Amino acid sequence: MAATTTAHGMGTIFKDCGHASSYWPKCPHGWKIRYRNAAGKQTEASGFATREKAAERLSTVHNEKQAKPANQAKAERIARYGQMRFDEYTAEWKQGQRHLAPASLSHLDSLLQHHIFPALSSRRMNTFDHKVVDGFIRTMERNSVGLATQSNAFDKLKAVLLDAHRLGIFEDNPLLGVQAPVYDPKKAVIPSAEQLRGLRAAGDDTFMLLVDVMSGCGLRNAEAAAVNIGNIVADDVYRVTEQVNQTTKHYDRLKHRKLDEYRDVPLPARVKQTIEWYADKYGTVDGYLLRHPHDRDRAYQPYLLQNQWQRLKRAGALDVPEGMVIYGCRHFFASNCLAHRIPITDVAEWMGHKSLEITFKIYRHLLPGSIGQAAKILNVSLAA
């Protein structure tokens, strides 16, 4: 019996029917292949109707052997990470979250320690599926965890499990079919223009400045604490570049922004006058108007504004709607914009929201117009 050796040493193709090899293409007997498997053991396979079919099978076996190292690496990866406890895997995953600011890391740690680890810390990674994830959500519901916290905790768990899915630990995505918690922010409680005027006069000069930049420019509490006269980039534009991080107590990048990113917001003339008046009266430090009252070398802390708000509220000095907080000054900015038909897309950008959906959920009730009004406007052209 003669055999033919394939290219690259993949193996041999032959017949053992007793005919001479020169007659094999004509004889009716099946073809066979001989090769060494992944373990190095010589192996045969038979029953191929044509030499081409035999060669095709031999090529497939060879390709599978060549791919074995990659498959083996994946198998080893699955074996290693699949047996890990969830808290161990999360610790490794967290080391890769270098983009998170200190405040975001602190928030992540809080969600892990208080909500996620108590339910899932010891679970092996390869045992997660949609039922486990759904059970975690139901546990939070039974524990009366707020919807905002439920949504945040689910997002963090989702990030970890998607990372594991990319490693190949799960054949099926364990999040498929899971109904995520939906947080719908309550309607904002907003002061009227008259109440806002009262707020400006209720506290000290610092309180007035903060009320002005929040209600006039839409700054968050922590962004207002970092107000800087150098950020007036035009007579009608203020550039928001940083905030006071409530965790580190230092100036830091903006929420939802990378380092050195900024957003430009409208600067009403009255707010510009307040900033310049305050700077003339009290001076600045590197352009910052506000510093810690007991140490000019330290940044002004947002909690100081909250403390003054509470003192004024206890003293009965605030005429504000029921349920309003100091953040309502920022809400006033959005309300003022929308009342004057400024597009909500612009408002979302100026307020620094992560998505337009957030702006829409909070301020939808403030959008001018209604279905009835729309019907009347559309009818004008239809009836023309």
Kindly describe this structure.
- α6 packs antiparallel against α7 (205-217) and α7 (205-217) runs parallel beside α11 (328-339).
- It is built from 14 helices and eleven strands.
- The chain has a four-stranded antiparallel beta sheet with strand order 1-2-3-4. A three-stranded antiparallel beta sheet has the order 5-6-9. A two-stranded antiparallel ribbon has the order 7-8.
- The chain is elongated and about 110 Å long.
- It is α+β, with helices and mostly antiparallel strands and 384 residues long.
- The longest helix is centred in the first third of the chain and has 32 residues, at 51-82.
- The chain has helices at residues 51-82, 86-95, 102-120, 130-142, 147-167, 193-202, 205-217, 221-224, 269-282, 302-314, 328-339, 344-351, 356-363, 371-383, and strands at 3-5, 12-14, 31-36, 42-48, 232-234, 237-240, 243-244, 251-252, 263-266, 291-292, 295-299.
- The mean pLDDT is 87.
Radius of gyration: 34 Å
Question: Shape, please?
Answer: elongated
Question: What composes the largest sheet?
Answer: 4 strands, antiparallel
Q: What is the end-to-end distance?
A: 95 Å
Helix content: 40-55%
Query: Strand order within the widest sheet?
Result: 1-2-3-4
Helical stretch tally: 14
Strand content: 5-15%
> Given the helix and strand composition, which structural class is it?
alpha+beta
Mean pLDDT across residues: 87
DSSP E strands, number? 11
Contiguous runs where pLDDT drops below 50 for at least 5 residues: none
Order of helices and strands: EEEEHHHHHHHHEEEEEHEEHHHHH
